[in-house]
Automatic annotation (TrEMBL):
Binding residue positions for Ni(2+): H96, H98, E102, H140
Name by which UniProt lists this protein: Acireductone dioxygenase
Keywords: Amino-acid biosynthesis, Dioxygenase, Iron, Metal-binding, Methionine biosynthesis, Nickel, Oxidoreductase
Matching PANTHER family: ACIREDUCTONE DIOXYGENASE (PTHR23418)
Any one Gene Ontology molecular-function term assigned to this protein's record: acireductone dioxygenase (Ni2+-requiring) activity
Cofactor: Ni(2+); Fe(2+)
Organism: Phytobacter ursingii
Length: 173
């Protein structure tokens, strides 16, 4: 289930606010310019290959591309036995920005996005069916977990994909 927790900076161990209702989470995030949608992923098998997933969601992805100007999409899958899981986790745990929106549709599993907003940090746990759009140039980081198990469709403005620009700031709350 999608969940949102807000932490005060400097680091606090307990959230100052937690939300679990999807509509409440979507409303909260919209105040920071972040878009959260719910897409139907019923019937998706985590073993479905990338080409099949892109075909399955073709019409919805194309509608989003037309509406927002995105140009391409691909699929990323991380599993607990992925040979680069530790290095990928460490890379994504660093605060960074992108010169374009970061758009992810989780079709299996979950992952956690962190977005600093003023003197707070928003922790958003995304699950299958969550489509998240973090606006361009918004600092954030992502935790796939120690043993990641997710499949996500990534949607890009630049057909070559996105490049992360490290901010050099600490990712601790």
């Amino acid at each position: 289930m999608t969940a949102l927790h807000v932490f005060q900076r400097p680091q606090t161990t307990e959230p100052i606010q937690s939300l679990s209702r999807f509509d409440d989470i979507r409303t909260f995030l919209s105040q920071a310019g972040i878009v959260l949608e719910r897409w139907d992923v019923s019937g998706v098998d985590k073993r479905t290959d990338g080409a099949q997933l892109l075909a399955q969601f073709h019409d919805s992805i194309e509608a989003l591309k037309q509406r927002e100007g995105y140009q391409s999409a691909d699929v990323i899958a991380l599993t607990p036995d992925h040979k680069d899981r530790i290095a990928l986790r460490e890379k994504f745990l660093q605060e960074h920005t992108h010169s374009e929106d970061e758009v992810r549709l989780f079709v299996h599993g979950s992952g956690t996005f962190f977005v600093p907003v003023g003197n707070q940090v928003v922790k958003l746990v995304c699950h299958a069916g969550d489509l998240l759009r973090v606006p361009a140039n918004t600092p954030h980081w992502f935790d796939s977990g120690e043993y990641p198990d997710f499949v996500a469709i990534r949607i890009f403005t630049n057909p070559e994909g996105w490049v992360g620009h490290l901010t050099g700031r600490s990712t601790f709350y």
